[in-house]
């Protein structure tokens, strides 16, 4: 859990300490990060759909040998 919390805390501290100097860099990073949102969502939905398809297949059709 610490590994997931520390980056957010560091970004917040960086923003609070260097807001004026870092605003342009954070804005560019935000734009770059949000532009890939649709692609990421497509991958997530596609993967979930594929897993649901595999789960719905009858047991007689084996994708991998057990």
Summarize, please.
With 66 residues, the protein is an all-alpha fold.
The beta-strand count equals 0
- The helix content, as a percent range, equals over 70%
Roughly how many Å apart are the termini?
34 Å
Total helical elements = 3
> Which shape, going by the Cα principal axes?
elongated
Judged by helices, strands and strand pairing, the structural class is: mainly alpha
What would the average pLDDT be, to the nearest integer?
Answer: 81
What is the helix/strand order? HHH
Uncertain spans, ≥5 residues at pLDDT below 50?
Answer: none
Give the radius of gyration.
Answer: 21 Å
Beta percentage is under 5%
**Largest sheet composition:** none
Secondary structure topology:
Elements: H1 2-17, H2 19-35, H3 37-56
Could you characterize what this model shows?
This protein is mainly alpha-helical and 66 residues long. It is built from three helices and no strands. Helix 1 (2-17) packs across helix 2 (19-35).
